[in-house]
Structures are given as C-alpha cells and as structure tokens.
Amino acid sequence: MYWCIGFALLLVLMPTVAVPVWENVTTSQFSEDDLSNLTEAVTKEMTQQKTQQKASISAADVESRAQVNVQRKDPDKKWVFGTAVIEAPKEKGAYPEGWIYVAKMEEAEWKVALEGSQLFQSWLQDAPSTVVNSNEKKAFANRSSDVKIMADQDQLRLPFALGATWTLTGGPHGYSGQNTPYSSLDLAGGNQQVLAAGSGNAYTMCGNGQGWIRIIHANGFATDYYHLLNNIRPNGSWVDVGTFLGYTGTDVSCGGYASGRHVHFALRYNNAYVSINGREIGGWVFWSGNSAYGGYAMHGSTVRYPGQGLYHYGALAPNQGIVDVVGRGTLNVRSGPGSNYPIVGTKNDGEIVTIACTATGTTFTGRSKTTNIWDRIGNGQWVSDAYVWTGSTTAVAPTCN
Ligand SMILES: [Zn+2]
After folding, report:
1. pLDDT winner (highest mean) among 14-23, 91-100, 136-145, 196-205
2. Ligand 1 center to residue 186 CA distance, Å?
C-alpha cells in the first residue's frame, strides 16, 4: 500500500521536479568547451585518486563511467563547485563512488580538488561565497585532531521516523559491497520515507539521477543515501535532522544494483567512508560480520540480525548511554557511587539514561569495559558505568562536585 502511495506521488511530482538544479550547466556563459575541459580535468583527478588507492579500475573505465556535475560557478568562470561520480557497473554489490569537488581556473586550465584532499580544504576557504557559502566552509572544515572524540559520538539518527521499526535488510558492508571499510547499512520498511540522520548541507550526487543524496554534518560526519525514489534534489541547501529526503527505491541511476526497495545508508568522517563497526546510530550499536551484509545490531542486550526489525530510539546525546546488563535482568540503582550504597531502584536493559556527572567507586566489568566509573543519573541515583553503553571507556560527563 505504501509503495502505491510513493509511486502515485512520483507520477504526480515527476514533471515538476525534473528541472532545476542542473540547468545552469548549459547556460550560455559556460560553453561546450568550458564544460568538456572541466569534465576532462575532473575525470583526470578521479583517475589519479583511483590509481593512488591501487583500485583495479582502469583509466578507460573511469573515463567511460565518469559523470561530472556543475552545481555552482562564479560569474567570471574562475571557480566551480560540483559533484563528480564514477558510476558503478549495474551489478549486485557495486555502488557508485562520488566526490564533491572544487575546480579553479589557473593559466587557462582547470585545476581540480576532490573532497578528502588537503587542497580541497584550502580551496573551499578561498572560493568566493557565490560558489561556496559560509555554512559549507564551516561544515567541510577538517577536524582530524578530534577524530577519536567525535567518532565516539556521532549523534546521528537512523534515516527513518523516530519510534518506527524498519528492517535491517543488509548489515555492515562497503561502498562496493565487499570493499572495506564496512561503512553502510541497508534499511527498508515502514512508510518508506527516508529522513535526514542529522542536520547539515545536502547534495544530490548524480546529475541525471534521482537516487543519491549526501549530507555533510557540522560535526565532521557525513551520511549517504542511495537508491532513493523521487528525492528532494538538494543543491547544498541546509536540511534539519528528520527532513524528508525521498522514498526508499531501487534507483540505480549512478549504477549498482537493488533487488528491492531500500535505502543504502553510509557513514563518512572527514570526507571519507569510515567503518560503522562499534558505532551507535539511532540507539543501536552496529557490529560487522566476517563478510559484507552480515553482522548485527545491539541495543543493550537485545540483538538484531539482518532480516530483523530495528526500533528507532533517536540520537543519543553526548552524555547519554544505553543500559546493558549483559543479559542478566535489571541494573541496580544505588544512592551513591559504589555497591556499598543502598539499592534505591532498578533500570531495565535497554533503557536510555542521561548522565549528569560521574564519580569513582566499585569496579565492575560489563560487556565492553571494566571500570570504576559511576554515573549519576538522577538525584541520589547512581549506576555503574560498566553497565551503560556510552561509546566510550572514559567518563562522558564531568566529575560531580
Ligand atoms: Zn547497501
């Protein structure tokens, strides 16, 4: 039924949305020559990138699958901002690869910097605001010194409605299936509406296609959404967390393969794909299996495998954790930070607690850590941090006064 609604909407909206963001590519200020020179320069840069990665793809293949899109340019045609994609072969486990790029005209030649490079970072800051706005300059800024801290706490939602349950149709896998890092999940179900996992600047990666959106979040993370049906086609515009992006679909306009409606949801950090293993998203901690699409998700002691449903709890705040009593009933809440204090209550496995501050006390060993940290979760209410998943083995809240 939901599929029918989605499809009906598509039929109604298709004629009106099929126009806008790419049309400036063909305006008179940008000649065929300009465009073909730019395309050539960007393609050359993508080929170099693949060579550096020692990828098995040949230069000829990159060239035949390259798709270069111009999103913005300055009136003098000195600067261009856009997306570039190597389309994937139309086969299972293959995904397109894409970069946001900045190009700069120097001595009558286009020089190109791809997302992820140092040059990209510095040119973004140099580019005029008509080409890269101040929001984007901030969002793309490299935060490599904070990688560890930030990586513990991505504060992302799953890409669907809070409180809904969708099926994990594929566990952690790479952008090209078996390729590592396993940065991606496949999800489907519910009302099929794919929503932004976090706020940020959103981009349509494929020029001619409906399928692929990338959001650059302000905390250094980015998220990809592929196979979308009828996507909102953003062009760097800001989207709030939970914004509708499109429907799950089987779109393969940038290549690859989709056997049924789903969203391919991938995690990036500092402009590159990162492993999703051990990371919390929407109240679930994802763990990779021995091979792509396997693995599982955990919420407290609850385990969900591919083919099973994930209830969406929302994003955890930096000072929140998930009670995990390692499959043994409930967690004792005590009046002070140690097992010598009286029990004043209990918390169920899977409950989300907010940690006001921390102290040290009795040492315990939980699923992921041995620690003497105790968390104050309310007035006169303390629990051992060993039984609270926080994404960290150190305290996530300041020491109590
Ligand atoms: Zn996938």
Report:
1. 196-205
2. 5
Residues 233/251, Cβ–Cβ less than 8 Å: no
Q: Which residue has the higher pLDDT, 16 or 354?
A: 354
Alpha-carbon distance of 273 to 209, in angstroms, equals 22
Report, as an integer, the average pLDDT of 289-314: 97
320-389 is a CATH 1.20.1300.10 domain: no
Find the 252 Cα to ligand 1 centroid distance in Å: 12
Kindly report the pTM of this predicted structure. 0.86
In this prediction, residue 149 carries a pLDDT of 43
For ligand 1, the distance from its centroid to the CA atom of residue 158, given in whole angstroms, is 14
Q: Is domain 165-311 given the CATH code 2.70.70.10 in the classification?
A: yes
Q: Measure 168 CA to ligand 1 centroid, in angstroms.
A: 11
Tell me how far the alpha carbon of residue 61 lies from the centroid of ligand 1, in angstroms. Answer: 22
For position 257, what pLDDT does the model report? 84
Identify whether the C-beta of residue 389 lies closer than 8 Å to the C-beta of residue 300: yes
Output the CA 392–ligand 1 centroid distance in Å: 28
How close is the Cα of 258 to the center of ligand 1, in Å?
8
Domain boundaries, the chain: 32-141, 165-311, 320-389
Give CA–CA dist 92/203, Å, rounded.
Answer: 25
